[in-house]
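Consider the following assembly input.
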Amino acid sequence: MTDVPAGRSIATVCLSGTLEDRLDAAARAGFDSVEIFEGDLVASASRPADIRSRAADLGLALALYQPFRDAEGAPPSRFESVRRRFAAKLGLMSELGVPMILICSSVAPDTIDDDGLAAAQLGELAGMAGEHGIRVAYEALAWGRHVSTWQHSWDIVQRAGHPALGLCLDSFHVLSRTSQYADIAGLPGDRVFFLQLADAPRLSMDVLQWSRHHRLFPMQGGFDLPGFTRAVCDSGYRGPLSLEVFNDVFRQADPRRTAVDGMRSLVCLKDAVRAPHGPLAPPPALSGIAFTELAVDGESGPELQRWLDMLGFAHTGQHRSKPVELWEQGKARILLNSGVVRRPGDSGSAAVSAFALESASPAGSARRAGQLLAGPLPRRRAGTEADLTAVAAPDGTQVFFCRTPGSDRGGWLDDFLPCGRPPGGDTGITGVDHLSLAQPYDRFDEAGLFYRSVLGLSNDEAAEYAAPFGLIRALALRDGSGLARLALSVPLLRRGEWAPGVTHPQHITLASSDIERTAAALERAGARLLPIPGNYYDDLAARTDLEPGLLALLRRVGGMYDEDTRGRYLQLFTPVIGSRVFFEVSQRIGGYAGYGTPNAPVRMAAHRALAQYAAGGN
Amino acid sequence: MTDVPAGRSIATVCLSGTLEDRLDAAARAGFDSVEIFEGDLVASASRPADIRSRAADLGLALALYQPFRDAEGAPPSRFESVRRRFAAKLGLMSELGVPMILICSSVAPDTIDDDGLAAAQLGELAGMAGEHGIRVAYEALAWGRHVSTWQHSWDIVQRAGHPALGLCLDSFHVLSRTSQYADIAGLPGDRVFFLQLADAPRLSMDVLQWSRHHRLFPMQGGFDLPGFTRAVCDSGYRGPLSLEVFNDVFRQADPRRTAVDGMRSLVCLKDAVRAPHGPLAPPPALSGIAFTELAVDGESGPELQRWLDMLGFAHTGQHRSKPVELWEQGKARILLNSGVVRRPGDSGSAAVSAFALESASPAGSARRAGQLLAGPLPRRRAGTEADLTAVAAPDGTQVFFCRTPGSDRGGWLDDFLPCGRPPGGDTGITGVDHLSLAQPYDRFDEAGLFYRSVLGLSNDEAAEYAAPFGLIRALALRDGSGLARLALSVPLLRRGEWAPGVTHPQHITLASSDIERTAAALERAGARLLPIPGNYYDDLAARTDLEPGLLALLRRVGGMYDEDTRGRYLQLFTPVIGSRVFFEVSQRIGGYAGYGTPNAPVRMAAHRALAQYAAGGN
């Protein structure tokens, strides 16, 4: 079984803020060392000795100083200035107490294509470093002028034959160019001085731009990080696993969250490298969404009660100690909580504040979450109440794990005093199909990894589409059973003053076994659903061969339609209630596996039009 | 001379918002027609007849309906559904009153590679369209499955030989693949049914992604739009010049500004196509920045007075009718205006509210601005005051054109009552080197085109760099003389809660003929300049061979250094005054042509550190 070293490192360039901000964030997230990126140090108001002592106070080793550029293959006339620059950096590193420097392969136009020269020059620099007790890790940049593969860099390191010179292997530089990395396992591990890890989406673009803007933490992109890391570990490498990610979003996001995201990625990576014997117990099986809690206030609460009533839900219980109502229909359960401490900007609106997953082992789910840096949230409960563990998702939503008893009441449901009404009506609504959770701009990739790793969900459908007020990225995730589904979305660019927030609320999709019946029940109850534009139906008729009866039904009730090779999907929507949440009712027919994504832009425009109409606009 | 048609059109997909928002914006910007993008219509709550009458009310023709996909080369079994879908769209177009539909080359995997079949099918569809009086424009997508060049699409159109079938030429699809477009001039112009225009930066990436995310308006990117447009016009094409731009930023930005930006691009394009006989008179020569006005309040005003005094400026004049002070030193003039109506969020800060350019013909400059959709701003003035024309830049900054008399007072300076003090001290400051203007996120590309076209500036230096709180895009522009320079910058991503705004203020760079003298004068005056980290100087010493005396000077005074092949650049900075503006003092030595951009990240970190220190942080 692959032996994975214990060290966990992160390059300061992964994070945002001052160097101090970055060191603090790395330490808080549990890293034991950092790579100091030269630009971050140069810009810092703290002197090397201050950085050294601050890192020491934080329990952080300084593992690597980087990058040192355009060293090997330099014409002799230029190599003199390389020597001087290198000597200065060795002095600086001694002040910092950093034992290793990264030299990346030259990109300078005057670089000479001569491995013998490169080896001799690197050997000379390694000799200088060795005198300071410093080692040199040589890395092939994917866009190096003459040296751009790990094999080539290894040839030169061997040729130099200096004990203070070894390899730096970077997953991005290797995997962006080749899938030929199995031989890395055969390298002498003590010659691999450093391992840098970054994932990335598979993009077809200039590799330098790809590297500088679009890297991701391991397990967030499309590269085989487990396979690569396994090969490096199998060589006998004993240094840290070190994250080195250049990402436009991370660079401007709160580094405390980014560092946690990075550490979580390393826990997941180690688990995958050692699969099936990783450090994590497998995620307990999920079997659906037990409840969804909406935080409400005096304005949105009554409006939600009215809608739940029209949708056929019954107010079945009242929490024993908290201002929380339980509404039920089939297996769909909604809690209305008027006691949630609101986040700023939430006033006058309802929002999904929590949801609970049916877990085969709530304790096991919570344990796994803790191992993945999502520790239990503090909760107040009265003595007899159920001990539900909640963890915080990246956007602050509380995620509970529970096991709801079958036919009898019990478990967490006993925390609710029965209101004497049977659960729900006869509208066809049977449960919750999925939750659609709009994510904070900075946290989309983190959220994907969080839900995949903590809950054991898999990516289901990734999409990007043009909504009326800008592009949207979407990622749906589901568990193996298909009973627990989450649909995440985020604007491709952070929205400014023009694009209204109301186009991007959260929603709860209720599963109906018969949407026609649900629509009829809603009509009887006097519900005014979201009006869908007539143009949509004209287009639908033009591009599908929908039977006229179904088309007429959709037109009449404001339904939407999607299909895939396996089946069909019918949808209805409520208006936005408050300003941040609405309900969808959907019916899956056959094996339809999607989320109605092609309809999302029209639905968003319809919500916008309704909001404008309600506001007295045109 | 090339005859450029008069029609100006824009595709609704260029703009953000509801279809109504987009139509309104297009009409306000002066377009006479639009292309209706299918998705925008489908999502609209307005029925085709409503759109038709709204457009008519706005004076907008509906020039084109698009796109109709996957038509030609369809297997016979699928072509039946193509026919039905096409018939439905023809009916819709008749309701809308649109006389032309765009068919783009098929991308469907089952498309048959048979030009004869494609021609026959397109001919059949053209026949159907012809019966409705509708024409079909066939366009080769750059990523079309079998048809991806304009030559190939022209072969098929000729082969079909139907009078209702012609070509749509799109500059992106042609120029992203080839520079072979001169032969377009030889096409029969009446067979070119439609011309779509988009520019783009030269990127090395998948062409579909490039097209969908990174298009720009003409004259904003790297394509030869004038040459391409000239070729199409020389064919005898008489339809409109129509903008079709997919751009992530435009999609979420206020469409009223985007539409103006688009119309300005067409004015510039026409001018360039007909160069040297375009519709615009050449921009009058500029010879520097006459003054820069800072809007101040009770807090920032005294602070700015103190700094101007320490920098060696003298308060030389007081405006006759407005609360504006004139401060002078050499040719550097700063106005402090405490009467500017502040924009929201500006309170407690100073900001550049206006600047004036020395123009050989202020009236000519203003006339050109008006032709480029930057009309004169309303201004109140007393009877004897100078008639200065101001226009609004995309960020709202007022741009004045003036001619400051040489040695004697006069002109606009006569609006200021002399305070009896001679202009300025003996600090070495001689004038303004450049203004650095942080741009609103949505308006960066618009600002570049605005300053190039309205002022006749040229791109000087484009850069992208990593600042402590995120990446920054920068573009410097200058006039031919090099006396009028502007440096624009914008975050690559709109900043969120973490990244502080203070890292991205505006600044005025004062030119010094002797920065050592300036520094000494500041020292005597008791000025506390921005402290630059010691780490910066250590790095500077390592990577340059600066003479020790100069390095010591820089270290002592907090100076920064840059060099290029032609010369050197020395810089000093004040702290941020208020929260949005600071001064730089710079000395150009030799022919240095840059803006000290490599130092910007360190300077930004230093401003951040100082702000944290001032706030009592670490």
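Chain A has 17 helices and 24 strands. Ask yourself how this observation constrains the way the partners meet.
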